[in-house]
Every structure is written in C-alpha cells, then in structure tokens.
Design brief:
Helices cover 35% and strands 21% of the residues. By secondary structure, it is α+β, with helices and mostly antiparallel strands. It has two domains: 163 residues, Heat Shock Protein 90; 57 residues, Winged helix-like DNA-binding domain superfamily/Winged helix DNA-binding domain (Arc Repressor Mutant, subunit A).
C-alpha cells in the first residue's frame, strides 16, 4: 500500500510505503493517516479544546479495509491513498462483480467478495461483517457525523473512494461530548472513566473525554504495558480493571 501527500496532482510532497501482512497493513496505514497525513480541525466549548478529523475515523477505517478485501491481487498494483489539503482518495485495482453497476453497489446488496478467503479471514478477525454493508457503513459514518457523503467511482482500472474535507472543520453537537476538563491528562481521564464503568468500550471512552478512538487505543495499550490497566474476560462480555488508583 502507498500513501502520498500531494500539493497538486503533479506535486508530491512526501510518501510512505506500507508492507507486511494484511492486518499489519490495516494498522500501519490507519496510524500513518491519523498521525501524519490528516490535520485535525479545532474548536472550543468553553475551556475545552475539541478536535475533529477531516474524515470520520470509522469511515476511513472501513474504506481502507474495503480496499484490502476487494483488491485485485493479480494486478500486482498497490492500493494508493492520495491525500491533499482538501480531499483524500483511496484507489484499488479491481472490478465490481459481473453484471453489477455502481448503482447496485450503493443500494442494498448481498455480500459477494472479490477475495473470499481474505474476506473470511477479515470476518473471523472481527474487522468486517460479511454482509455487503461496507459501502453503506462508509456513507453513514460520514452523513451521521455531518460530513459530506463520499464519492465512489469504478472503471476499467479499479475502484475509487473520494472524501471531500469540510471547508471549515466545526465541532457540532453530534461530534464530540465531553465532561473532562482540559487540565486532566488523557491517561488519567481513561483510568477514571474505566474505574467508574469497567464495561465501557474504548469508543465510548473516546466520546466521553473528547479524543479520537485511535488515540484512546494507543493510550490504553500503553497503560496495559505499564501495568496500570488490564482487560479481563472475553472480548465480548469482558471488563476493564484499573490497577492504579487515580486522584
């Protein structure tokens, strides 16, 4: 997979090449996009600073995984993610199923993966649902968070998803909710949330303290490594235990 930041179509400023197994590609790609390529917009709610990505993280994640699942690996062409100041494009080699149109893809449709073995592996890993809802999930993640719906295009060369960035990144009522003061550092805020409600998901914690889910995942991983936090039980039905008291 390749990621590049462009000033214009002919002016590439910097780029990264992501290699490794498919799971590593998903993780590395999302991490690079969120930490290096995408700039957050900022607004203030009282004394609280709120940040908003130019593309909803859920939509970005689904689009990246969708490209990996449906890529034509026989073409030996990497997935290409082009980032500009005002848009982000994800392109992968591959075609729609025989006799399918873009209109059918955007409507309710059955799951018909281009790479059944890869799709099954991603399903068993919990990364996709295997119901043919990927495109709908991308669109809904944008619309429900007050972003423009992405543009989809398919031709003989491959499949393209285009996200247009908001002209002004404003944080509205539906984007972020927070009850934690800015003076409270993220790790402490996470521990307080999970101590009060051990069954909270990391997505819920992110919404609670006004951070991105990815930022919470990274912070929790560090807390676990430091022995301050542990997850007990199965992925579904388990709970968090805070091993260090917070003030």
């Amino acid at each position: 997979m390749k990621i590049g930041f462009f000033r214009s179509d002919s002016d590439l400023l910097y780029q990264d090449v992501i290699e490794g197994d498919l799971f590593a590609q998903v993780a590395k790609t999302l991490d690079l996009l969120l930490t290096k390529y995408l700039r957050t917009g900022m607004a203030y709610q009282g004394a609280q600073r709120l940040e908003r990505l130019p593309v909803p993280e859920a939509a970005l994640r689904e689009a990246v995984i969708n490209a990996i699942a449906h890529k034509d690996y026989g073409a030996s062409i990497p997935i290409q993610i082009s980032v500009y100041d005002h848009k982000l494009l994800i392109w992968n080699a591959g075609q729609l199923p025989l006799h399918w149109s873009l209109t059918r893809l955007l409507d309710k449709h059955p799951s018909q993966p281009a790479n059944p073995d890869i799709a099954k592996t991603l399903f068993l890993a919990g990364l996709i649902e295997s119901w043919g809802r990927g495109i709908d999930l991308i669109r809904r993640a944008c619309i429900e968070n007050d972003y423009s719906a992405p543009r989809f295009e398919c031709d003989s060369s491959g499949f393209l998803v285009e996200f247009s960035f908001p002209a002004v990144l404003e944080v509205g009522k539906t984007s972020v909710k927070t009850s934690v003061k800015t003076s409270v550092k993220t790790p402490v805020a996470i521990l307080r949330c999970l101590a009060a409600n051990p069954t909270m998901t990391l997505v819920d914690v992110a919404a609670k303290i006004g951070k991105t889910p990815r930022a919470i995942e990274l912070a929790c991983a560090k807390l676990v490594k430091e022995g301050k936090l542990i997850f007990v039980g199965p992925k579904k039905g388990g709970h968090w235990e805070v091993l260090e008291k917070t003030r």
